[in-house]
Amino acid sequence: MITAQIEPTAALAELRESKPDRVTIVLLSGDLDKAMAAFIIATGAAAMGMQVTVFFTFWGLNTIRKKGARSSATDLLRRMFGFLNKGGADTLPLSRFHFWGLGTKMMQVVMKQNRMPGVPELMDMALDLGVRFIACTTTMGLMGITKDTLIDGIDQFAGVTTYLAEAKQGSVNLFI
Amino acid sequence: MMQADVKLDTLGYFCPMPIILTSKKIKELTTGQVLEVVSDDEGIKKDMPAWCQTTGHEMVGMEEEQSSSKRIYKAFVKKTK
Q1: Which of A24, A123, A141, B7 has its CA 20 to 30 A from that of A41?
Q2: What Å distances lie between residue B81 and A12, A101, A150, B78, CA to CA?
Q3: Main-chain dihedrals φ then ψ at residue A70, nearest 5 degrees
Q4: Distance CA A77, CA A13 (A)
């Protein structure tokens, strides 16, 4: 058994760093349109010099999962769930007019024609602009999502207390 | 090894349970005593310092123990009021 000391103040460094305008976004939805709204606001705010944190929970975790990654959970129920619940930022369905994929495909074509970035591009931009991504450990556990099945760049894991401590200091707080 | 006066076992619980149990347990302590919270939810690494910052209790330290099959976290919180 190995015991390591963790420096608790390190976890608070971002919290103490006092930027006046702080934006917190909870992304619960795994729908294409809602994820787009979340990342457009996140990138917009970051471009305006605000400090942005996005918390991913429940279906929102699908946006930061690798495409095609399977759940590595060992119990049957969570494995079944992981099989049904597909991840990947470019596989998100529209919340309306998905039509077994056809509607969503059409929307993606229209977006491309209008030179509108998709969710994966918006997420890359957000990470480039310094937006922090935090994954909720509770729902990861419930849904059988493990760290190794998340995209690169997701290295922060926390829960409701971290979210609240940040939101408390923020001026903009959205639940999508 | 850090020393604690009271130990709280939250193994197997996910957020927000470790924090809720901590907030209940800390009421039983007297000011100056240290509570050790044991958890296997990684979220506690960030959540406990955040909880302390918000409530005003002192985050004394944290330990991470890695054994063959799993990883557990020990958070030490000193009651300040």
Answers
A1: A141
A2: 21, 57, 41, 9
A3: -90, 155
A4: 38
Chain A residues touching residue B67 (CB < 8 angstroms): 1-2
Residue of A15, A145, A146, A161 to mutate for B, most B C-beta atoms under 10 A: A161
B52 has catalytic annotation:
no
Please determine, for residue A67, whether its predicted confidence score (pLDDT) is greater than 80: yes
Tokens of A61: 């975790």
Residue B78 near residue B30, CB atoms below 8 Å: no
Distance, C-alpha A24 to centroid of its chain: 12
pLDDT value, residue A3: 81
User: Which of chain A's residues have a Cβ under 8 Å away from the Cβ of B61?
Assistant: 5-6, 8
Q: What are phi and psi of A96, to 5 degrees?
A: -135, 155
If you count residue pairs, one on A and one on B, with CB atoms under 8 Å apart, how many are there? 105
Higher per-residue confidence, A85 vs B46: B46
